[in-house]
Hints:
The complex is a heterodimer.
Chain A: E1 2-6, E2 12-13, E3 20-27, E4 38-41, E5 47-49, E6 55-60, E7 64-71, E8 78-84, E9 89-93, E10 111-112, H1 124-128, H2 137-141, E11 147-148, E12 157-158, E13 166-170, E14 173-175, E15 197-203, E16 217-223, E17 231-237, E18 240-250, E19 253-263, H3 265-271, E20 282-295, E21 298-314, E22 323-339, E23 344-361, E24 364-382, E25 387-407, E26 414-436, E27 441-452, E28 457-470, E29 473-484, E30 503-515, E31 520-536, E32 542-561, E33 565-579, E34 586-588, E35 595-605, E36 608-617, E37 621-622, E38 625-631, E39 634-639, E40 645-646, E41 650-664, E42 667-676, E43 684-689, E44 696-700, E45 706-714
Parallel strand pairs in A: 3-9, 13-16
Antiparallel strand pairs in A: 1-9, 2-3, 3-6, 4-5, 4-7, 7-8, 10-15, 11-12, 13-14, 15-16, 17-18, 17-45, 18-19, 19-20, 20-21, 21-22, 22-23, 23-24, 24-25, 25-26, 26-27, 27-28, 28-29, 29-30, 30-31, 31-32, 32-33, 33-34, 33-35, 35-36, 36-41, 37-40, 38-39, 41-42, 42-45, 43-44
Chain B: H1 8-12, H2 18-26, H3 46-63, H4 67-83, H5 88-104, H6 111-131, H7 135-149, H8 153-173, H9 178-190, H10 199-214, H11 227-240, H12 244-257, H13 262-273
Helix pairs in contact in B: 2-3, 3-4, 3-5, 4-5, 5-6, 6-7, 7-8, 9-10, 9-11, 10-11, 11-12, 11-13, 12-13
Amino acid sequence: MTAVVAPSLCAQATADSSRVVVRGVVRFPDARPARGVTIALLEGSDASVTDSAGQFALRSAHRGIATLVARRIGFHPAALDVIVPLDTLVSLVLVPQPPSLSTMTVVAAGEYTLGNGTTASLSPLDVVQMPGAAGNVSRALQTLPGSQAVDEGSGLFVRGGDVTETRVLVDDAWLLSPARFDNPIGHVTATVDPFLLDRTVFAAGGFGAQYGNALSGLVRLETAGRPKKREGSATLSIGSAGVALAAAPSPRLGVRASANVNSMRAVTSTFGQAQPFDPPPQGGDVSGTIEWATGSAGRLRLFAVREGSRLGVRDAGVETGTTYSATTAQDMTVLSWRDSATAWRPALTVGQSGFTRRETITGLQLGTRLGVTHLVGSLGWQSDRGLGIRVGADLERLSAQYDGALTATGRDTTRTLFEARSRSDRAGAFFETTWQDVRGVRVIAGVRTDRATITVRRTVDPRLSVAWQRGRLGLTAAAGVLHQVAEPTFFRPRDGRRDFAPMRVREAIVGAQLGSDSAGVRVELYDKRYADLWQFTRDFDVAGGARGHARGADLFVRWQMGQRTRSRVSWSIVQSRRDDPDTGIDAPALGDVTHSVSWITDRQIGPLRLSSALRYATGRPFTDIVGTTQSRDGFQPIWGAPNGDRMPAYLRSDLSASWYRPLAGTSAVVLWGSLSNLFDRTNVMRYRWSADYFQRLPVRAPFNRVLYAGATLLF
Amino acid sequence: MLVPRFSSNAARRASRSAIGALLLSAAFTSAAPAQSVPLASAPLTGAARWADSARVIIERAVFADDSGGLARVGQMLDKALTAFPDDPLLLHYRAYGLYRESMRADGDAMKDERTQALELAVRLLKRSAASKPLAETQALLGSCMGSLAGAGMIQGMKWGSSASDAADAARSMGPTNPRVLLLEGISKWYTPAMWGGGKDKGYALVQRAIAAFESDAPARPLPAWGKAEAYAWLGQMEQQRGRVAEARAAYERALAMESEYRWVRDELLPKLAAR
């Protein structure tokens, strides 16, 4: 801003002798007159506008010192102290502001976030305070649009896709979440303890080219960063205990460590169990983080976690008397480096994830051992004019080992059924450019290519995402091709043939959103066409080359009542069909849950926070048994139309409460509790049949009404 | 907290209007700012002139328990910020006024307004600190965040750590700054010894603050509040320690500096006399 006072013309008295005229001219730095500039004295409400010559005449009754200010959109205000009456012609120069990009608050198509603030995502507190989520990140994500409520497990079925098509990344490295041969208490998507995380972002589609090998959903977990001081927490609850510590030995170094153990035994022995667990789910984890600040906006972070769990369930299968038990161990180590100090922004991650599981299904013993090493690197460049470019590559080595054995009934002998080992390397590369202009348009265009040794073919995935924002209104659209290499358990080359095409989907999304973070409406429509899908048959054989189609709409409404009450409703509507792996005919997919609705409400009353959750879902499809045949091996079922029937609708309500009491400084104690399945509704999770298949017996979902409570000390 | 809560009756007795004070101050005639605020002879111009007016008016409103005055100075600063949108001192005083207003928003019914004011103050203070780091800005940031942290669990988790960081930054930037010492002393006074606080520590810090105020002469329009307030707090501490004469002397010292200091005149001294 430049301002001078020219000693020339005098202020002239007007017809109203109590008012004087302040005259002057406003110009641009190149001396051109500035038209349409608002001129005002801050002392009062007098204002005027410059004419085509940049001149103004401001009438004012003010006397004495005053601040004269000239304003026009796109320019720095020009201000000058004057003494009125003024015997000079005021000259002001308006200096343009550099083009500043409006803050894009429109979230990319397919991406969902929770919490407060324009950059908010699912925070650890969002997870642990969500009623019915049991502190599980995946279960919290199930309350977001785009996720279908197939069962009470933590599996993420996204927009009609299968649970195996959702990929979980920890600081960009792949966290294994393998397919399961059986899911007696629900499908599973692996995540980590929410308190190890800084935030979680869930994308139901429209991923950028940076993310490969994911067909339907993407969960990006960002681990907690370097603590700035010593802090910690200790938690004790019914069936679990945990401790977390953090320290900052130096201004640039921070460390975190945590350990947790849990067991459902105390809960099931107190409140009963909906399913005959033997033993009830139990497990534990240890983790650690070390971070070194490499510069003003750079960091090197090492994150490691190891988890173990165990459970058993009786009457777990289609036939009465089937038992299931599983022991699982999972570990992950991620070393990541980021630096955003300059316009050049490098990122490098190397991660190793391991998964070991022993399953027993009534004498059938199955072993799964997977290991993946994932190297991801990219380099971005960001201009101050809204243009960004990122180029990168990733390498992935997945080793898999499966074995199966059968223990004869009443004997100690075990017969090996199969042993299989495989290794798959995948190499991918991507280029992505982002452009945003001052009018509120953002375009992200990219392409990625991948090649896996197990598929022996290269894929090319173009992707495009567009967003437009004007005030509170935003419009989004995305389209692209996505590929995913099926897990090696599906890879069973026969007769030397290696026809193992990567699974593919072509998707298109359009959406609109109106409002802000705290109150608004968002709608998205999508259409997805699948090809080359790999699935398990009923007998654990594999079927490839399947096609599918999913289309639907997701609605997300958030509103706020005062400062204390927030509520949100997610409503996902989907129609999803796939070729049935047993018959090959087009049939509803497992994720064809027509309506999935979640209504979450939080209310803060002083130090007390109350939350409620109401979930509804159309019953998921299943294949009924419509008759039996008798053979030397006994009764054999006759299956009906693939996924031609539906379970009863799912309905569940949960409450949670937490009471926070600050002790001193940042110390505090939190008492919390939750009441799951408030009305003790009997939701049917699956069916089993009597030995002659004449009687269909519903198997209850694992959560009956349970009161869960605990305390956390923050220090 | 720093601002006592008075009856609305007392608030209605506020005398001088904010605009009147502004005009007086702006014309450099007889603007009689708080006695603890040193006046420099050189006239201020531009944003500094508005900031200087704001600090004087806020102090008058605080001493007179004038909620209307605080609201009006907020409007005045909003207007000034249209001309000087990134001026760090205007941002600082806008936030300081909001902080004082928030402390007056008593009772459950006012909780939403209080939270909104404090959250806005935090945003303004962060902008101010980004362009002109001041120990007082960090101290106020810590106090605002600390107040927000006490509102509930979410707020505690959200603001608690940041409040502590801001207080640490204030202490680092102004280890002998009397306003930083005063805020820390009040905080320690109310913090149990097992958590690092204690009555003795709080008392010692307020005494250090009072000593530091003796040589405190910030140039206009930098923050200069707190001297009379420090004696008001010292009086309360002395009173709790059973030293009635020392408490009375402290209150009288505060009134000698600010004769319209209603918290001391209408509340603290009468309570002491009733003992």
